[in-house]
Fold this protein.
Amino acid sequence: MSVPESFDNALPATRVSDLARVRGPDYLEGLNPEQRAAVEATEGPVLVLAGAGTGKTRVLTTRLAHILATGRAKPWELLVVTFTNKAAREMRERITHIIGPAAEGLRWLGTFHSVAAQILRRNAELVGLKSNFTILDTDDQERLIKQVLEAENVDAKRWTPKAMAGLIDHWKNRGWTPDRLPPSEGTEFAGGKGQTLYRLYQERLRVLNACDFGDLLLHNLTIFMNNPDVLADFHERFKYVLVDEYQDTNVAQYLWLRLLAQKRQNVCCVGDDDQSIYGWRGAEVDNILRFERDFPGATVIRLERNYRSTSHILAAASGLIKANKGRLGKTLWTESNDGEKVIVRGVWDGEAESRLIAEEIERAKKGGTEKEPRKFRDMAILVRASFQMRAFEERFVMLQIPYTVVGGPRFFERAEIRDVHAYLRLIQSPDDDLAFERIVNVPKRGIGDTTVQKLLHIARVGGVPVMHAARQAVQTDELAARTRTALSNFLRDLDRWRAQAQTLHHSRLTEQVLEASGYTDALRLDKTPTAQTRLENLKELVQSMG
Ligand SMILES: Nc1ncnc2c1ncn2[C@@H]1O[C@H](COP(=O)(O)OP(=O)(O)OP(=O)(O)O)[C@@H](O)[C@H]1O
Ligand SMILES: [Mg+2]
């Protein structure tokens, strides 16, 4: 985060409250009475339960501005959590729009994971990690699980690392450490070895000074529960807690919120039980029901006026969700006009669907006797899963309909970005075995799988990091001459980059690594359609490092 530690001093205490006087509460204008009530009920627990497009996020943002503008808290005393980085960014922008640069001090505004990661960095030693711990991505996670499975003689073909990763994630989302795992849970995997494997995996993570995504919250929970003084510090710090998309919280996130908010009880959650999309990730609509139990006397506010859609669209949506079980029930209304009716069409398959929709698009583009022509950029297609896009893309290429794909794998999940990350990790911490394994032969430098397995074996037997094993191996004739040379060159490169890291800016270092390792050259020669995009992504990454 770009806010300097000294920001506390940089912003005079009076300035935020001055804003209220200067600007007046004009940010409250235009809110409907229920929205306004939700903004102004700053003290005590508040649950805003409302349908899509009723202004929940707007309420949360305005409430945040209101708390700051009336001097109830400083920006760094607010804990604000959203579900995606994009949502966090948008919220920050909207607040900046209302209160100006003071919004920069919102140090604790982010996703559950990013806020939990910040908390963990400051308290890592309490769970046996160092503050510079690595956060593993799913590839690394599966690689590590594979090692654990092999060490325990579990058949990784039958009990795949992916399945184990899913199971561990599920347990972590429910707030279960290996010790807290209910007896019935560990029994199914690998003939009853689930709990043992989970424990070994956690031990390996600790040795590697690493954690996976699920650990971020889980370790926070452990820290809070075992260290009341640390929790008390956070109670002192966070005067107000605000949560968007509350319906998507899983059990671990809920416990985390409850621990952080239980003292002051100034917690405001906004959500919609009808929009819970993460059910399969352990999200619990129950959390909404539990809120009223855990925070007795909570003010519950319902927003029913929709500002986003026409009444036909609302009616169609209500008709569908009416059939859902376990909902709390609400009726949306709007003042906007009826609009066009929603049309439902059944088609045989994806091909037929793309044909139909492409025709529809061309018709809309042309316009008709009663209809204005539409622009391509005003049309959108939503799909449930990305594989469904293929048929559309093929069709559009054929008909020369221009399109852009929004979504797809997120930037930091792309292979090339993860590769760079692994290089930098290995430069920073030579003991990072997972990073080593990932890039030792990326780009291809003649160090094949057999060699890697040999090195892993030497490392395991000697109880040393793989890098260490590699240094040993190049001194002996255990490897073929050609492999030995390739490996020595690789080790020499790493040493050089490590020395350069002392003086070079990390964007320059990254450029060096990409060029000298042959990574960019390999992509330049690559004739597959994605190679160009991947080069651009790398450029983007280097630029973003400033
Ligand atoms: N009182 C209001 N007057 C005019 N427009 C409003 C009002 N409240 C909200 N809106 C507009 O309605 C739209 C939806 O608002 P918002 O995104 O806050 O809703 P939401 O309930 O968070 O939606 P979702 O369920 O998708 O999260 C936005 O464009 C917002 O500016
Ligand atoms: Mg919203």
Q: What stands out?
A: The chain has four domains: 7-118+219-303, 135-209, 350-399, 411-544. The domain at 135-209 is CATH 1.10.10.160 (Arc Repressor Mutant, subunit A). The mean pLDDT is 87.
